[in-house]
Write a structure and sequence with these properties.
This protein has eight helices and four strands; from the N terminus they run H-E-E-H-H-E-E-H-H-H-H-H. It is globular and about 50 Å long. The protein starts with a helix and ends in a 24-residue tail after the last helix. The protein has two domains: 127 residues, no CATH class; 68 residues, no CATH class. By secondary structure, the protein is α+β, with helices and mostly antiparallel strands. The chain has a four-stranded antiparallel β-sheet, with no helix packed on it.
Length: 213
């Protein structure tokens, strides 16, 4: 029922993903809070991967866990932001804002992005995937399948296509290959396969909660 509601409900046209985090967490700044809202349209072809990922999880993981242990309810799908699966779904950033000094007496709201509802969302680009997420074999897939002009569009320097080709052919260091790209856009992502997300993970040892002395 939940799967049908998520991807096949005639009354459900979009899925909203709302992410709150600390943009400067690594610097120890917990006063600023970032709010981002993404949209995914399960019925649209550009978001087919979302349907595929959710369907795979339900049939190959959720139901299999349920079959092996009917008395327990399996964990829901962890759709982590900023991971490979997340970007493959082509999420569209429609709102981004930061609350500066959220816990101070004078917090300020800074809106960085806001796409009004009247805007044709089909003409809005989805967010770019950072190049350091990709593995070497995925760059090889891009070289084999993507058009040259599609690759050039994502390079830091448009003259680096031949360098990218040479790096792939000579099996160069992954980090050097990643550094050629400013990001992996929607056009390149369509050539990438889903990773091994259908494997059922079973804990080999019994979980025991850690205690502190």
């Amino acid at each position: 029922m939940e799967l049908k509601t998520l991807i096949n409900n005639p009354n459900l046209n979009r899925v909203l993903l709302i992410i709150d985090d600390y943009p400067n967490f690594d610097a120890g700044n917990y006063e600023d809070i970032r709010i981002q809202i993404f949209e995914i349209y399960p019925k649209e072809a550009r978001h087919n991967r979302f349907k595929e990922i959710m369907t795979n999880y339900y049939y190959k993981i959720y139901l299999e866990h349920k079959k092996s242990n009917p008395e327990k309810t399996p964990a829901p799908k962890n759709f982590w932001p900023y991971q490979f699966q997340f970007y493959l779904c082509n999420p569209i950033l429609i709102f981004k804002a930061t609350i500066k000094g959220a816990y101070t007496e004078n917090p300020q709201l800074v809106i960085d992005r806001w796409i009004e509802p009247k805007v044709d969302i089909t003409k809005v680009d989805s967010i770019s995937m950072p190049s350091d997420i990709l593995k070497k074999d995925e760059f090889k897939t891009i070289m084999d399948k993507a058009k040259q002009e599609e690759v050039i569009e994502c390079l830091v320097d448009e003259t680096s296509y031949n360098e990218f080709q040479d790096m792939i052919e000579n099996d160069e260091d992954l980090g050097d290959i990643q550094s050629l790209f400013s990001g992996i856009d929607e056009n390149l992502r369509k050539y990438l396969d889903l990773r091994d997300t259908d494997r059922i993970a079973t804990a080999k040892t019994k979980y025991e909660r850690r205690t502190h002395s």
